[in-house]
Design a protein that fits this description.
Blueprint lengths: L3 H5 L4 H34 L4 H52 L5 E3 L5 E3 L17 H33 L14 H20 L7 H14 L3 H11 L1 H11 L8 H4 L1 H18 L5 H12 L14 H6 L9 H18 L7 H4 L21 H10 L2 H9 L2 E2 L10 E2 L1 H8 L5 E2 L5 E2 L1 H16 L16 H14 L3 H5 L5 H10 L1 H9 L37 H11 L3 H22 L13 H28 L5 H8 L8 E7 L2 E6 L2 E6 L7 H8 L5 H6 L8 H16 L1 H7 L6 H22 L13
Antiparallel strand pairs: 1-2, 3-4, 5-6, 7-8, 8-9
Helix pairs in contact: 2-3, 3-4, 4-5, 5-6, 5-7, 6-10, 7-10, 11-13, 13-16, 15-18, 16-18, 16-19, 18-19, 18-21, 21-24, 22-23, 23-25, 24-25, 24-27, 24-30, 25-29, 25-31, 26-29, 27-30
Length: about 775
């Protein structure tokens, strides 16, 4: 694998000489072939040889003459491969040289590893600095251009090396005669070879050996993002072929040991097969358009194996849990899936699990990635949406015609309402052997995460940016309305609380805007609010109506944050996001360290800390109330839960200076927090490095076990108040403040945090959820 510095400093002279040398060889071989054709073979064909000599000598002459032709073809192919490879390497090298040369003029520098950074860091610039000030978009464009150039060189290297090895071959006595007009042609040939090799392994089904499954996985991994390979394989196997294969793998009755002894290999195979089919769906060729239509058509049909008969939708949905499927295909597939379920449940009069009971035989094992066996096709489909934000957003903002065969009626179904409220999600058998609805609601949460944030729910945190659109916000409005309306929706949907916390974290700026208003019902923000993330012109990313308007009112924001914080994961995620967001806003709107300021310039800073502290108070109060409802007072479980309310400070926080987004990585996974500024500065960096009090550590050491619950709660709330001070302390701790300024800021701003904390108690917090039975 070539690296940045290897491409940038590549010495291509020898390769260019090789191209020249092979071009000369081609010219010589052309003359030799002509002589062999017209001379050697021509004379042999005209000779009137008789007997054994004719049978041996003529055949030998023909073969010899043919070798001249094969030699020419092979030499021409080698020349073409080297020529195109040199051209690709040269283009990649020149592109990197251009980027390195242009970077300083754009205020950036590129080191020997290809890492892009500020030429002069923002916090090191002088007051009169008037040089270039690159923004996040500039860094993203530079990184993307570097990656594209290095990828171009690596792709050429991979294809060329494989093609040259193939041309040389293993037969020392014969030229291969393989013809490649270009590097691109060689790439297509290689893809077709790999696709056919994968097809031959596919035909073995569950009779394949573990080593053969490894080979199939290797072929998929090497080509899963290659459109030509993916399409060739998908078409060769066929829509039903994939379903029949995967159903056969999940048949527990046919004696195969793969699912017993090699679950890890089947897990990898499910991932790789999904990724390959996902890539194939992006093709718009007539053959693939028909393939996609046939997949949906086969969804309502049973796929019969020796001992099972799952429906096509059940099988295919488990091959959609991973990968970037085509948006339109996902939408069409989801519509077809919902229509089929509604018909099978008599328009919802029967529970969903009745729809997906297999007609005959044993239950299939269709999902090898853990969490559930894969019988509910909605789970796999939701996971597919979770990896495809655009499709997910359109799906939850759209409607589904549940009687597409009847053009005269207008029976529409709202997907958001159906999946978050109306559908009776089936219980699934989880990895522990328990029957639970958690796998379904967990997948629903993943789909809603992608629909609201604009990112796959499990996207790599590095390089992520805030990409929320008006359409994403429309889904989030529905989420806040649904899950902030009644605690039962979150509490009766196990597995969705962590996703609700992440969604709240992604919209923590808009939640703060709503909390700042003085009325619970107004939809207009407080004038000149320090919150919200607008563009350079001051316009909202969600549309002109939200320049001063709110996505939801204060009452809805309090209810949503309060209900989500009733859960342990929701409280942890929102608490960490609130503190980090407050710190970034404070750094953006407060006086800048190193410059004199007056009392009036602290107004926005006070507001920021007051609202941040109130938000934390809302979340802490809601969590405490839910703990009281869940556990008997003074029980070990109650005290342990109380102690864990401060554990969020242990979130590993990684700052990513991209698009105003910081990634929080904790037990719940990556969380996106929209910052008030596009670069991470001193206060945020200080906040990330600060140590804060975590009561759970004391509890684990038995220091708090002897306390009564009420005393422990009081201590936990005091700790929460102390942790609320962190943004203000981080801001005031900047070394560019004078000693007196630091003292003044600490004293002045802390008072507003305390006031905000007290004001939190004035809110009408949502009631805790009382468990049934």
């Amino acid at each position: 694998m070539l690296k940045f510095d290897q491409v940038l400093h590549a010495q291509l002279g020898s390769l260019k000489e090789a191209v020249t040398g092979w071009s000369e060889a081609v010219s010589k071989l052309e003359k030799s072939k002509e002589k062999a054709d017209t001379g050697l073979q021509g004379k042999a064909e005209k000779a009137d040889w008789k007997g054994e000599n004719a049978g041996v000598t003529q055949a030998f002459v023909r073969k010899t003459a043919k070798e001249f032709g094969d030699a020419l073809t092979e030499a021409t192919s080698i020349r073409n491969i080297l020529r195109d490879a040199e051209s690709e390497f040269q283009a990649a090298k020149k592109e990197l040289e251009r980027l390195v040369a242009e970077a300083p003029g754009k205020g950036m520098r590129i080191d020997q590893q290809g890492t892009v950074s500020h030429l002069i860091r923002p916090d090191s610039r002088s007051k009169d600095y008037d040089g270039p000030k690159p923004e996040v978009a500039d860094f993203e464009a530079m990184n993307a251009a570097i990656k594209a150039a290095v990828d171009r060189a690596n792709n050429a290297d991979d294809v060329a090396s494989r093609a040259l090895r193939g041309l040389v071959g293993t037969d020392k006595n014969n030229f291969s005669g393989t013809k490649y007009d270009s590097l691109a042609a060689a790439s297509k040939v290689q893809d077709a070879e790999d696709a056919h090799a994968a097809y031959e392994l596919y035909k073995k089904g569950d009779e394949a050996t573990p080593a053969e499954i490894d080979k199939l996985n290797a072929l998929f991994k090497a080509n899963q993002k290659d459109p030509y390979f993916a399409e060739k394989f998908a078409l060769e196997v066929g829509p039903k072929g994939s379903m029949e294969y995967w159903a056969d793998m999940g048949d527990p009755s046919d004696g195969s040991r793969l699912g017993v002894d090699h679950r890890d290999k089947l897990k990898d195979l499910q991932t790789n097969w999904s990724m390959t089919l996902a890539t194939a769906t992006h093709s718009t060729s007539p053959e693939m358009e028909q393939w996609k239509a046939d997949v949906i058509k086969a969804g309502s049909e049973p796929i019969q194996t020796r001992g099972t008969s799952p429906y096509g939708f059940q099988v295919m949905s488990n091959l959609m849990r991973v990968g970037d499927y085509d948006d339109k295909f996902l939408k069409d597939y989801g519509n077809g899936l919902v229509v089929t379920e509604r018909k099978m449940t008599h328009d919802g009069r029967l529970p969903a699990d009745r729809a997906w009971q297999q007609m005959t035989g044993m239950p299939s094992h269709l999902n090898w990635q853990g969490g559930d066996l894969g019988n509910d096709p909605m789970i796999g489909f939701m996971e597919g949406l979770g990896h495809n934000p655009k499709a997910s957003t359109e799906f939850f903002n759209g409607s589904i015609d549940v009687t597409p065969e009847n053009s005269k009626d207008d029976k529409k179904l709202d997907p958001f309402d159906y999946f978050t409220k109306d559908r009776q999600w089936p219980e699934e058998l989880n990895d522990k052997g328990d029957r639970t609805k958690e796998p379904g609601y967990n997948a629903l949460g993943h789909a809603l995460e992608s629909a609201t944030t604009g990112h796959p729910y499990d996207a790599e945190t590095e390089g992520l940016k805030d990409v929320r659109t008006k359409e994403n916000a429309e889904v989030m409005q529905k989420v806040v309305e649904r899950y902030g309306d009644d605690p039962k929706y979150m509490h009766e949907q196990p597995g969705i609380d962590d996703s609700l916390g992440k969604m709240g974290a992604a919209y923590i700026d808009e939640l703060n805007r709503s909390l700042e208003t003085t009325s619970d019902t107004t939809m207009e923000e407080q004038e000149r609010s320090p919150f919200g993330f607008n563009d350079a012109k001051g316009n909202s990313r969600f549309g002109e109506e939200f320049n001063t308007g709110l996505l939801w009112n204060r009452g809805d924001a309090v209810n949503f944050m309060g209900i989500v914080s009733q859960s342990e994961s929701g409280h942890s995620t929102l608490s960490a996001a609130e503190s980090l967001y407050t710190t970034s806003v404070l750094e953006e709107v407060g006086p800048k360290p190193g410059f004199n300021f007056n009392e009036r310039e602290l107004t926005d800073a006070r507001t920021t800390l007051r609202i941040g502290s109130e938000a934390q108070g809302i979340m802490d109060g809601s969590r405490m109330a839910q703990i009281d409802a869940d556990y008997e007072k003074d029980s070990d479980e109650h005290k342990k839960a109380v102690a864990k309310t401060t554990e969020w400070v242990k979130f590993g926080v990684g700052a990513v200076a991209a698009g105003g987004v910081v990634a929080l990585t904790g037990g719940a996974g990556g969380v996106l927090v929209p910052l008030a500024a596009e670069t991470v500065g001193g206060a945020v960096t200080t906040f990330i490095g600060m140590e804060a009090t975590d009561m759970s550590e004391k509890y684990e050491k038995d220091e708090l076990l002897k306390k009564k619950s009420d005393a422990l709660k009081e201590e936990a709330l005091d700790t929460g108040k102390s942790n609320s001070l962190r943004p203000g302390v981080a801001y005031a701790s900047d070394t560019r403040w004078s000693y007196d300024e630091r003292n003044y800021l600490n004293e002045n701003l802390v008072e507003h945090i305390k006031n905000g904390r007290l004001h939190a108690a004035d809110n009408n917090l949502p009631d805790p959820y009382e468990k049934k039975g």
